[in-house]
């Protein structure tokens, strides 16, 4: 994960250098202010944005049976891990999944879907899934993913804006200009750099996401002392994805990098540069090896 973050840092420095070099001088201060505002909004509001996008609500222990169950499991896990208890939220969707969001341990929310609560009637499996999400919080990789995805999101927006400007005549050469700078050339260069930045960030973030999932699997299994429960939950949830309507899965695709398992049929069954998670078989194989190391049945 350190290697991937280092490579992302190189991409960030290169992209910022190009922006400073080619941005119109009068617009550079405005550009810096807009980028800074966008970053701080994503950093400080990441948990609220995630909850709003998932239409999830923070719940208290006495709100419902599902809320009591979630709070009870998290109380037990946080006591074992000796870490602050995050806020607890529930998203009303049939897609069985869970995620953690927030910039620090003191500003984090762990969310489970109603679909997950209905399907995991075994508290050991639910505990394993939530231990996995708490591991993301303990490793601070929720904050790392927020930072890592920032430039990729920004580059994607700039690419779209410059492309639409080109469609509206932004790339048309203006004759008769006295200065040497062609607005068409500058706009085209900005679009190309933004596209390359987005592509590199996309691949590196996917790689970072796969690494962090394996780390959270191991840490979560060590916390509960039950790797087989996490492996069972993985198989249970990915198997249940086949019963979810395709349109519901597509609505959740944007959150795949943060989910316990990707919202696709069969899970991440094929390893590729574009996968947000390792294949389920690989995750279960590593959990089986961990169980042997711990001397636990699998």
TrEMBL record:
Residues 66-289 form the Peptidase M48 domain. Its EC number is 3.4.24.-. It is found in: Cell membrane. Zn(2+) binds at residues 132, 136, 213. One of its GO terms (molecular function) is metallopeptidase activity. It is a multi-pass membrane protein. The active site is at 133. The chain crosses the membrane at residues 27-45, 142-163, 183-205. Pfam families: Peptidase_M48. Binds 1 zinc ion per subunit. It is an enzyme of class 3 (hydrolase). Its cofactor is Zn(2+). Its main location: membrane. Keywords: Cell membrane, Hydrolase, Membrane, Metal-binding, Metalloprotease, Protease, Transmembrane, Transmembrane helix, Zinc. InterPro entries: HtpX_protease, Pept_M48_protease_HtpX, Peptidase_M48. It comes from the Bacteria. Belongs to the peptidase M48B family. HAMAP family: Pept_M48_protease_HtpX. This is Protease HtpX homolog. It comes from Catenulispora pinistramenti. The lineage of its organism: Bacteria, Bacillati, Actinomycetota, Actinomycetes, Catenulisporales.
């Amino acid at each position: 994960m350190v290697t991937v973050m280092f490579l992302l840092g190189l991409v960030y420095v290169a992209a910022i250098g190009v922006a400073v070099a080619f941005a119109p001088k009068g617009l550079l201060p405005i550009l810096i202010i807009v980028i800074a505002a966008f970053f701080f909004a994503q950093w400080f509001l990441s948990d609220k944005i995630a909850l709003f996008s998932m239409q999830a609500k923070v719940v208290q222990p006495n709100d419902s049976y599902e809320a009591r169950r979630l709070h009870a499991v998290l109380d037990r896990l946080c006591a074992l891990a000796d870490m602050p208890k995050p806020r607890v939220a529930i998203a009303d969707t049939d897609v069985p999944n869970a995620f953690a969001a927030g910039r620090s341990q003191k500003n984090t929310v762990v969310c489970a879907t109603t679909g997950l609560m209905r399907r995991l009637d075994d508290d050991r499996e639910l505990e394993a899934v939530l231990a996995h999400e708490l591991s993301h919080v303990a490793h601070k990789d929720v904050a790392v993913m927020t930072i890592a995805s920032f430039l990729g999101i920004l580059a994607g927006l700039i690419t779209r804006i410059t492309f639409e400007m080109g469609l509206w005549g932004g790339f048309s050469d203006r004759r008769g200009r006295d200065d040497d700078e062609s607005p068409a050339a500058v706009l085209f260069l900005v679009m190309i750099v933004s596209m390359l930045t987005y592509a590199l960030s996309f691949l590196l973030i996917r790689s970072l996401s796969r690494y962090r999932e394996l780390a959270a699997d191991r840490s979560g299994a060590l916390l509960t002392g039950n790797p087989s429960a996490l492996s069972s939950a993985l198989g249970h949830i990915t198997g249940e994805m086949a019963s979810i309507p395709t349109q519901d899965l597509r609505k959740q695709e944007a959150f795949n990098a943060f989910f316990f398992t990707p919202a696709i049929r069969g899970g991440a069954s094929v390893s590729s540069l574009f996968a947000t998670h390792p294949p389920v078989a690989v995750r279960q194989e590593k959990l089986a090896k961990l169980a042997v190391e711990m001397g636990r049945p699998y």
